[in-house]
Each structure stands twice: as C-alpha cells, then as structure tokens.
Amino acid sequence: MIIYQNAWSGSLAGGSWWPRGATGRLPDMKVLPRLHKAVLLNSALGVVLIAAVGGAYAVVNSGDTSRPTRTDTRTAAVSTGKVQATVTGAGLLTSPSDAGVNFTTGGQLTEVEVKAGDKVTKGQVLAKVDDTAPRQALAQAKTALVAAKANLGRVQEGQPASPPAGSGGNPSGAPSHAPSPSASGSTTPSPTAKPSDSPTATPSQSTKAGTIAGISMRNASYVGVVPVANPSVDPNLLIQAQAQVSQAQSALDTAQRTLDGTVLTAPVDGTVASVAASVGQTVTGTTYAAGPGTTAGTAPAPAVTGGTSAAPTGFIVLTNPTGMQVKANVSEADALRLKPGQNATVTLTAQSTTVLNAKVLSVSTLAVNGGVGAGAQYPVTLDLMGPTKDLHTGQGVTVQIVAGEASDALFVPTAALSGTGTKRMVTVVAQDGTAHPAEVTVGVESDTNTQITSGLTQGQKVRITTVAP
User: Fold this and answer.
1) Which residues make Cβ contacts (< 8 Å) with residue 260, sequence separation at least 6?
2) Are residues 275 and 332 in the same domain?
3) Which candidate in 85, 135, 245, 287 could, as Cys together with 222 as Cys, close a disulfide (CB 3.0–4.6 Å)?
C-alpha cells in the first residue's frame, strides 16, 4: 500500500489507519494513472530498442548479398599448336613376379640358407626341414609297389594272388590248379583241375580268355612284363591286382612329393624381403594349387583393391622388380577416355625427380570400393618401361596418362567455350569491336585449351568472360 500524507491523517504511532472523517470507504487516490504512464513509457523504450537491433542486423546481413559483382572481359586469339588431354591418378608399384614361398611339407627347420636382402636365383635352395619321416615313408611306398607289381604278374600268369599279410597260404607259391608238366615234357591236367581248365574250351570261355588277354595287354605298363593270354586267369583277381598296383603307385608319388616338399627353393629370381623363422623352429606345410604364374608352395600373386596392392606373405617373401607395374584408380569419366597402349609418365611420390615412362596395359570395367556413378573408381594397370631394378613393391606414385593429342591444331582457351558435347558456342570479336556468337566443333580438350576442328580460323579473336566478386 502507498500512503500519501496529504490524503491521510492517521498516525502510525497511534496505530490508527482510518482517516479522519471516514464514512466507510477509502478516499479517491491518483495511483493508477501514474502507473499507466510508467508502463507505457517502458514499453515504448523497449519497442525502439528492438527496432534498432533489428535494423542493424538487417543492414549487416544484407551487405554481402547486395554487393554488386564485377564482370571482366578479355579477348584471346585463335592459335595453332599442340593440344594434349591427360588423365591423372595415384597408385602403387607392384610386381607380378613377387612371391610368398612356403614349405609344402611341414616340420622342424634344419637349414635356412638365406636372410633378408640376399639375391637369389630361380631354383636356389632357401631352407630345409627334417626329412627323416618322409624318407621312411618313401621307402615303404617303394616296397609296397614292388610287391603289388609282383602280385599282378602272378595273377596274369594264372597263379593265385598273394595272400594278404598275416594270412596263411601256399609257402611254395605253386599254383593249386594250374597244369603241371609231365616227365615227357607234355602237359596234363591236374587231378584236381576244374572243367574250365580243360584244353577244350567252350565259346564263352574263349570269349572270356580274349577279354582277359586284352586286360593283361592294357596293364602291361604297370609291371613291365610281357602279357600272356591265359584262359585260367581269374578276372576278379586281375582287377584287384591292377587296383593294388595303381594305389601303390599313387602312394609312392605322394611320398615322393612329401619328401621333395622338405626342401624349399626359389620359384623366381629376386631379393629376399623377409624370413619368418629360424633353425630349430617348426613350420607348417601349405600347398597352393599350381596355376598360371604360380607353382606348388608359392602364394598366389597379391590381390589389388582400390589402387592398393597387398604385399605377398609366406615363410620367405621374394621381391622381383622385373615386369614392375603400376596399379591406380581413375574416375568413371576418365576411364572412358583410356585404352591399352596409351603413353603415360609415372613419378615416384617420395622421389619427385624420378620420372618413368609407362604404357596402359588394361582398364577394368568393374568399379572398385562399391562406388557408383560419379563416385565410382576404376582400376588401371600400366607397364613400366625402362630399368626397374631399384624399384620396390608398394612405392607410391602419381601417373599422368595421355588420353588424346593433336599436333598443329587450332585451339582456343577452354574458358572461351560454352555448352557441352562436340558442338560449342564462342563469342567472336571483330576488328571494329563488335561481337557475335559462333558455333564451333571441338576435338581434343585439355585442362586449359581445346582443339577447334571447324568454325574458326587462325587469328580471329574470341571473348572470355569472367565474373569476379
């Protein structure tokens, strides 16, 4: 409550708040009009302040958009010279001759003949593992093959097959039902001979004998004996004996490969990049299927993805700069301009003064890294020309490929052209200063100049317009 002394006569000390002569209602006071004036004054000041801030903000923000741009024009003469279109990219050096070499037979290392940095030649021994067990297995396989061949020979002669190991049999090995010679040299049937062993054979028996003779002829290579047509040969025993020889030969071949796999040799000439273990350690045998450019025990060539080449891995890694290549990626638009045989230059990233000549070997039609449209990248392989002995797999390079070239060609600055495709527009400026549009046909287009194949003549001037902020 606001107390105005002129309107109140009450005394604070006396505790009486009711004015003298009060009749039951408060007297009229001038409080509300004064409050209204203060509120209106403060509101007006707030509106003015907000308007000032907004105006300043508008002025500041409209300054950049309202600033006028400047257009500059100049002229350029139609000239004659060389126009070269290039495609640039980055990539890595790689060699198809690099190899990761592994033992095909695992075991404990007994010899390691090389170390990192050594030069090796194709066929040179690199390391060996213990071959005691493989040699024993090979000897056993040879013995088994000899026995299988001997058994096949007996069956082809009409004798019974050798009994399985551990079973009883005729110790003498003599036939139990074959004809036996008499004292006079003639042959008489054994008392226990079967009717089928009689000198008189039925037509079906003759046919069987001919078949057996044919089988014997086909399998002569297994045993190195002269086949003999013998009607007493059991065809079932013959087939079994032949299968035994085949299995024994296969086992012998496997044992020989296992023994050979204890010696690791260099599949190519090169330099030892790394050796994964030392004498006394154990290595695991790994066999890769032999194919183009690979041999058993040699890791396949490293895969290339995204312009990068994974280094080969193996017990021993060999690098060989012979046939060094560049793997790089280019955009879809650039890939469409490239083809095998185009010339290129390659610059080592770490040695910018080393520039090598190269040629495009292939351009892939499959994008890498899952890119599509303008973001797609396509692998390009280039063959390096000239000496490569000091290069190494994995070195970074930049490439510049000549995608098109025109000598003694009319050209204008690319900035003077408008439009797309082979038909473009230029503004020709006459000697008196007047200008008129003209349609031209373009050829090779570089970053700065574009070949003109029709529509202009040497010496004419074209307008180049640039817009500056």
Assistant:
1) 104, 105
2) yes
3) 245
Residue 172 maps to a domain: no
Asked if 378 and 303 sit in the same domain, the reply is yes
Tally of structural domains, the chain: 4
Instruction: Compute φ and ψ for 151, nearest 5 degrees.
Output: -65, -40
Look up residue 338 and give its DSSP letter: -
Distance CA 84, CA 443 (A): 10
Task: Supply the angle between the helices 235-260 and 132-156 in degrees, to the nearest 10.
Answer: 160
Tens of pLDDT, residues 360-399:
999 998 888 655 666 788 999 999 998 887 888 888 999 9
Residue 359 within a domain: yes
Domain-embedded: residue 174:
no
What tokens appear for 412 in the block? Answer: 């204008």
Residue type, 90: A
CATH of the domain at 332: 2.40.30.170
Angle between helix 235-260 and 203-218 (nearest 10):
10
> Are 329 and 234 members of one domain?
no
Domain boundaries, position 243: 131-158+204-261
Pinpoint the alpha helices (H) of 117-234. 132-156, 203-218, 220-223
Q: Where are the beta strands (DSSP E) in 266-392?
A: 270-275, 282-283, 304-305, 308-309, 316-319, 325-331, 343-348, 355-363, 377-385
Write out pLDDT tens, residues 402-441.
999 999 999 999 999 999 889 999 999 998 989 999 999 9
**Residue 415, phi then psi, degrees to nearest 5:** -65, -15
Asked whether residue 150 falls in the same domain as residue 215, the answer is yes
Using alpha carbons, select from 196, 241, 233 the residue that is nearest to residue 211.
233
Q: Are 77 and 456 in contact (CB under 8 A)?
A: no
Residues 324, 395, single domain; the answer is yes
Tell me phi and psi for residue 335, to 5 degrees: -60, -35
Given the structure tokens 């032999």, which residue do they identify? Answer: 290
* Assigned domain for 393 exists: yes
